[in-house]
Sequence to fold (985 residues):
Amino acid sequence: MIKKFALYLFSVLILMQFSITGAHAHRTQMSITTLEYLPAAAGMTIEITHKIHYHDAQEALLLSDQGATGMSVMELEAQARFALYTSQNFSLWHDNAKTDVTLIGAEVDGDYIYIYQEATLETAPQTITVDCYILRDVFGSFGNHVNIRRGRNVQTLIFQGDEGVKSAPLP
Amino acid sequence: MIRVKTLMSLVAGAGLLLSGSIAQADESIGSGARAFKQLEEILPSPNVYRDASGAPGPNYWQQEADYKIKVRLDEQNRRIIGAETITYTNNAPTSLRYLWVQLDQNKFNNGSISRRTETASKRDGKDSLSFSALRREQSHEERPYGAEIKAVKDARGNDLKYTIVDTMMRIDLPAPLKTGGQTVFSIDWEHNIIQEASIGGRGGYEWFEENDTYIYFLAQWFPRMAAFTDYTGWQHKQFLGQGEFTLEFGDYDVEITVPSDHIVSSTGVLTNPGAVLTKTQRDRLKQAEKSDKPIYIVTPEEALENEQDKETDLKTWKFSAENVRDFAWSSSRKYIWDAMAHHQEGGKYDTVMAMSFFPNEADPVWSLYSTQAVVHTMDVYSKYSFPYPYPVAQSVNTWAGGGMEYPMITFNGYRPVLDKETGQKTYSRRTKYGLIGVVIHEIGHIYFPMVVNSDERRWTWMDEGLNTFLEYLAEVEWEENFPAFGNKTNLLDSITDYMTSANQVPIMTQSDSVISFGPNAYTKPASALTVLRETVMGREQFDYAFKEYARRWKFKRPTPADFFRTMEDASGVDLDWFWRAWFYTNDHVDIGITDVRSYTVSTQDPEVEFPQDRAQKAKDQPEPLQQSRNREAGIKTRLQRVPALKDMYNDNDEFTVTNKDRNEFNSFLDGLKPWQKRVYEKAMADKNFIYFVDFKNIGGVPSPLPVTLHFEDGSSEDMLIPAEIWRFNSMNVTKMIIRDKKIASVELDRHHQTADADFGNNHFPQQISQSRIKLYKSDRKRKDLMADMLVKLKDRAKAEAKGDDKEVPLTPAN
Ligand SMILES: [Zn+2]
Fold:
């Protein structure tokens, strides 16, 4: 027997669906997300930093609806919008239980916009599951690179095209 | 601060310490030998076709395939109808009983390996389908794709037996084709053209919904001879999408029949301008041949007018191309066309026509930058390789994003966007530099791999990596602080996130299995070459060797070993360790300075040294609190209470100079041989400071060490220690540095020239760094402003979401 579910075509809340397609012959743009697993008094804390090139964020804003058109990434509101957009396109599970992630804020430094999130865990997990869909809805060739770090150990998850959730053991 | 100690004795062999620490943990023993092992052990053996020097061998050979093609664009049905005659010359030392032809359009057939191995996606833990994925499936259902072979015949018109295997077709020859022999055969075929935006590919058509107009761009569009090589026989890797193409050189005569109001851009030279261009257009072309700035052959206004009507009459454009390994073309009634001349010396063509074709949707940014970027690319690339070897170089806007290369013609993306509020077309910074970058990149590919014909299906890095490296050189020469690859000016700062990540594959990975295609096949090899040029080899040696590689393999077929060997052979620099670490492993560059110890040479004279030692001891071992607090509390020691306990040792501490000490010093001086005495006396006069600097190789890649010494007097000095310092021990080394002034701190790689991934350990004394997120949180004011804004936006989104129906449910089928 095959179970049936309703399948949803997805779109994005803050940024409009607008896909720039392209061949793979040229370079691909990507975001870099770092999850830093740190020991805490009880359990662990996770520092989440998303690093997205300023120009990519600016281009996405140019294509966005809901009044963000023409807004510069240098503006606080644009950064906040981008932070919200990012937090809506990034989810985290530990040992298959969804983890609450707190949005801390965002800032532009040099060529990049940084979006910060945080989460806490009561115990060290075995498996980390990530859904990262940053700007892949906007630029066809965009990729998301997620580095999961604990001390010097790293695990990496790479998201491209329409790829969905991926898992890795705690490094 | 670096503390100064005295070095107790001069050891005659102290210089040996330069080559590494003596006692190390077990794992480091032999680590240098492993890192610096000869690369010959993994490279293919040199032979008569490929020399050990990296040059083509005395019996080097390659096949030739010449084409005569007639093709018609059926615009009504968005379809290609073609007939070709191929003349194939067998230069291989073996005879061939069958030939393989590539049918790349078959990738789009529903039965192809590529289609059947596509995988589904999940979102938020659930099965999901995006609009674009569904559109793609719908396009595949709409009509069939893939080459429809109508006839395969020999020169006399007899049918030839053929077998299609996915994206390849084998033609069985009636008799073996001997060495030096030639065979002529023809193929008639047709295929439906894909809509590139919905299916995705390197060619197809683009539909402009707003005014129902089209751009056609035909790539991998005709049955092409598969490569037959000395290193793998017939190219037998099917076209899966990621690994591009390797083909044979040959001459092409192609007749392209399109609606009469179309403008065609194509590989080759137009041989019948009188039949397809107006007098005005031909006059403007003549003018452009003498112009040092772009001149319109078709103006934006003319193109706008042209795209209004839809002619059904046909015209045939004839193109001829010599010594190319592929052929592509584009056709549209939307095209604006501009051209200017590029002048060069020493090449086959003194004047090369640089041209661009683009719709009004691409302006104003295309009129400004495309053709200029084409000329700039030839300027820079020719300097590092060879003069541009063809009569034309074209940039064609065939899509909104992306880029793809063919001989003499490239398909490039980037367009301005329409501002929804003002209705004005505006282009962002990203679009401007993206366009210049993509034009440089794709025109650059005409050198690598269209002329230096590396095997893209096997080794993507050989063309993408080398080309990205040169693209970067050209971008930095376009303007300073060009937001180059990864939108950073320093390429080496953009690669470290990738190189420190897990789940990597080495650069030396077959094209279709490469994970993280962009960083792996483009940025990392380009970074490697940048480190070679700026740090390991130096510009002079690198440029000479790179140019030699380009010269040797121009219009030939190099493999990775030919590149590795040539770069060493021509420069005289051993790079086995470099190729091994950067191309065969997933290691990264991270060198840390773990300790710096500072000394002066001891006089060994007790009268000089002992007082200093006493002072040092007082500094090193402060008085214990148990003792000082006893004194403060007025507690008297037994010695103070019983004076009879006192003797000479209570008056003189361990640092009091005795006659024995003086005698020892004198006999030390007497025992010195004359040359040792000279060394001693010079050291006493110099009063130098001697530093032992410990380096730890954390990332695994042996790296040259660009060290900066910051002196206490405020001056500084740069020095470059070659990577060979790691040859005995590739994990830990100690370098001795002697200077006549005190060093305050030591810094490693201050110009970011080695791709070091962690600058947190590049200083001694170490500089404290805090995580970005902690720093951000510590700035309360800024953090609160952002928090308020987030709340405001969230509330607004909540209000809007009530009537919002962006998620479209699919009804489950029964
Ligand atoms: Zn490329």
In short: The pocket of zinc ion is lined by residues A 25-26; B 441, 445, 464, 467 (CB under 6 Å). Chain B touches chain A through 90 residues (CB under 8 Å). The longest strand of chain B covers residues 64-74.
